[in-house]
Write a structure and sequence with these properties.
By secondary structure, the chain is an alpha+beta fold. Helix content is 29%, strand content 17%. It has seven helices and ten strands. The longest helix is centred in the first third of the chain and has 30 residues, at 25-54.
Length: 281
Amino acid sequence: MTTAHTKVPGTKIAVGESHHTVGTRAEWRAARERLLAAEKELTRPSDELARQRQALPWVPVEEDYVFDTEDGPASLADLFRGRSQLIVQHVMFPPSWDAGCPSCSAMVDGWAGSRVHLENHDVAMTAVSRAPLAKLLAYRARMGWDVPWASSAGPTFSRDFGVSFTERQLAEGAEYNFRTIDRVDPADLPHGGDSDEYVDDAESPGLSTFVLDGGRVFHAYSGYSRSVDGVWGMYQWLDRAPLGRNEDGLWFRRHDEYGDDLAGPDAAGAGQGRLAAAEQA
């Protein structure tokens, strides 16, 4: 039997507070071996899921997207930077925001360190957002990252790959994570739903992968909502912590916003777009 614990990051459990099961080393060993069997059973379908993901048909990318990067205008092929594979994190950072969303930022925290390994294994990684490049680079400097970041402010890339939405889309019933989301009441939209302008608060998280083969770019995979959970590094560690995720709402901040007070969930800010939240509901 367990009880709920405080969600304030870093708070320690007082002795005797958790009421968690206590046992002998032999009891722990027996339970751990049962868990090991379950872990092995989970590994096999997980491997098969990865195989199915890699077996998806490749779709030629016909659009001539041009991104704004610190090296100047770049095509989608340019983002591969000499590799044959590309992973794009669609970071929620639309033009009207002053910073990237905390959850997307936490994901970048994870792969910023892994990028050197991936890029030495023929996989390029980049972040793409709709905010202008100057904002992206300023925020990147604030976060202390050195990851490639491209602005899709001009092309329709973020819309085409399912993470940015216009008023008209929302009013008619946008699709997120391959499902149609409930229509947004036009009265709740700035121009009554009769506009092809983007709605920044509808920005949603995701990732997309591409292959460069024979000089052509192909779309291989896109994932949204819980499909990106497996690459959200801190949660993989939390799943192995004694209390697991131990959360009720958004508890995390951008990594430079944690103070000595270790403030709780109300300080986290927006962690996902309205469509991502609706899709998970």
